[in-house]
Amino acid sequence: MWRNTDDGYGWVAVVLHWLVAVVVVGLFALGLWMVELTYYDPWYRRATDIHKGVGILLFLLMLARLGWRLANPRPAPESAHSRLKRVASAITHVLLYVLLFAVMTAGYLISTADGRAIDVFGLFSVPASIAGLPGQADIAGDVHLALAIALITLAGIHTLAALKHHFIDRDRTLARMLGQTPPRSRSSTPSRKKA
Q1: Res. 187: pLDDT tops 80
Q2: pLDDT 10s digits, 54-72
Q3: Domain that holds residue 169
Q4: Closest by alpha carbon to 11, among 179, 175, 173?
Q5: Number of domains the chain is built from
Q6: Residue 128 in contact with residue 117, Cβ under 8 Å?
């Protein structure tokens, strides 16, 4: 099934979730590696161009994901989850979205500080709408790094929570994000009293 149901996520939401996760981790690793390169390293410009191009594509992917999320109802929360867990989950998801868009915005401000457009693998370019602000590249660079570390940290906590749900709580939280909608266990379905 492509669309979400009350019991689980559809394949579109699942693919978008894991694609974003892989790209974010990849960009974070590439970013840490490329800032250590010297000007004369053959990957100095190439790594930066890849980072920028993939960052723009990630932004478009996130817009698609946000649109899909708004157009599809989220599966009902696990009945065993307390109100505190549900609120914590909602806050975490909102923060992940906010951090992702904030990191990409800071990256855009770094890349366009000199007024040049961002070329996306020769397919299209994104114009520099904000450029030339005092210390723009340096300030945006510091913010970009701090936000990226915060994003990866929160994503790590999110991952640990999903693993806890799967291996310790033994609920369907992770299974649903893997596209599985196993039947509810008897303990999670309300029992009907005989008349």
Answers
A1: no
A2: 999 999 999 999 999 999 9
A3: 11-181
A4: 179
A5: 1
A6: yes
